[in-house]
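Quick start: what a row looks like.
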Amino acid sequence: MKNRVVVSAFIILWLALLSVYPSFASDNATCEKSQAKEVFSVTHHTAEVGKEKLDYTATAGQLILTDDEGRQRAQIFFIAYEKKGAKKYSRPITFAFNGGPGSSSVWLHFGAIGPKRVLLNSDGSTLPPPATLIDNEFSWLAFTDLVFIDPVGTGYSRPLPDKKKKKFYGFKKDIESVGDFMRLYLTRYQRWLSPKFIVGESYGTTRAVGLTEYAHEQHGIAFTGIVLVSPVLEFSTILFNQSNDLPFMLFLPTYAATAWFHKKLPAQNSAFENMLTRAEDWVLHDYTVSLVQGNSLERQQEHLCATQMANLTGLSSDYILSNNLRIPAWRFRKELLRDEHKIIGRMDGRLTGPDTDTAGEAGSYDPSLDPLIGVFSSAVNHYVRNDLKFESDVPYKYINYTANRAWDWSSGVHRGQGYVDVSQKLTAAIHTNKYLKVFIASGYYDLATPYFAVKYTVNHLELDKTLRDNIVLHFYRAGHMMYTSLVTLKKFTSDIALFYKNMVVNQ
């Protein structure tokens, strides 16, 4: 009898709520309907990788991240590849992403390490459209399973609900969402006992190093290795500023390499390696001394410095003096081939494009990147729907410029002041896990994150001397996206394969 009374009272209360709030039930129904669903497509493929015919499974899908209360936060799109017949527990798994911030993983995926790659000319320039996808004989799938992650706001990854998208556009929140995805993936696909690697490019290297801290502290993930492609770990090394002389010094050897390639140096017959050694030595022993004196530098010394700098960069001493001995990268790109009406690439200083604005000081486009956009975007849009059978009418954002412009850097800066710097996190990660190995790859013609800045950063890590060999440096005669050059792609892949082999057995 008491139960009947309770039930009757509940019904009366429910009807009363409906009479006062007629939308109560419909709102809850709408809420249920608005819940995003995880979608996956699993396909099976065979590819020629190296000299081996490799059978693999591809999974394209969206994992949904939730908070501690179970509320949906974001859906993250990924494409994963697993070699068939391999033992999950002994075979490495590599999480890969690009940078931006605001870039999808399309560049590493279809330029370097996935089972398919975009066909380019041997120097990294593009062929006439449309794009052509071919088997990637240099795919890392030969020695590791792969998971390509599109961070929130890129690819098909989206925040839930949409109005909270800016929460993910920042140094800290980006690392958290990618780290949470990695935990969920390891759990869902039973890969906790696999050797775990990360590969990031450009800003993706900043994210990768940040993940070593977050994934370890929050999820107990220990990585076997990290691959940093064209890294930037200390942003004071690349951000030109009146009060920051560091990038002017660290970019100069790349200016020298680029000028050498375009035959603009007086001592052009000098071997490439000898020329770079001379440029690095001059920066460390002469250029630095001149710059740190600022306006107190004597006039005679200033003119001597300009003359020496002209001999190393191919720029005129008058132009160097007019810039107070300090040439930012965008001015170098405009000035070096100005008399030929050409601008050189930021991602790769070897590639050039027409430049009719000969009076300008900054380039309007990057001939080493902009032509690649249509090719890579076409490739991923075709491939995902036709080869992987994942269908979505949502735009695939190869780069999200809105996210890039809205990026919150403050959480990556110590006490809100200075530059983003994750180099100390890398030191801490190696001290915490003495088995962690780091592979760093840089291109001599990279005018975005120059190779000498990488040397500088690594040389200033406060690593215990017994652990310094945990980091290996590889420099290539290529640009930022070094893998677009066929010769470099082959060498890069060979070096990486050896890096994995030295740490992992029983693949």
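That is the whole record. The two ends are 68 Å apart (CA to CA). The domain at 40-236+373-501 is CATH 3.40.50.1820 (Rossmann fold).
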